[in-house]
Design brief:
single chain, membrane, cell cycle
Length: 115
């Protein structure tokens, strides 16, 4: 590998040495700008990756919270619990057989007569 690089390096450097000092300075400046842009882009990539990891962690925490809230909602909305709260706190009770009345829905003309 070193031999290949050295084999390429010598002819290229031979051509660069033959260039005027102004072109050499221009090439050096171009190489420096490219190197700095690579370093800058790598730094931005690392910062964005860290931010992505934080967002993934937050999303996972929110999923856990969502599951906990769904469990809590199912607990609060359980029919036995709702009935217990209605009886204890609101003093509600189931209607007796004679207290229930069934009403038929009326027809389209506004009357409630059965057909």
């Amino acid at each position: 590998m070193k031999k290949d690089i050295a084999g390429i390096f010598k002819p290229v450097m031979g051509r660069v040495v033959r260039l005027s000092p102004a072109y050499q300075a221009l090439l050096l400046a171009a190489v420096m700008v490219c190197a700095l842009s690579v370093v800058t882009s790598q730094h931005k990539v690392r910062k964005l990756f860290i931010e992505l990891q934080k967002e993934k962690e937050q999303a996972q925490q929110m999923d856990v919270e969502w599951g906990r809230l769904q469990l809590e909602q199912s607990t609060w909305a359980a029919p036995a619990r709702v009935e217990g709260v209605a009886v204890q706190k609101l003093q509600m009770q189931l209607p007796k057989d004679g207290q229930v009345q069934f009403i038929r829905a009326g027809s389209n003309d506004g009357t409630n007569s059965p057909k």
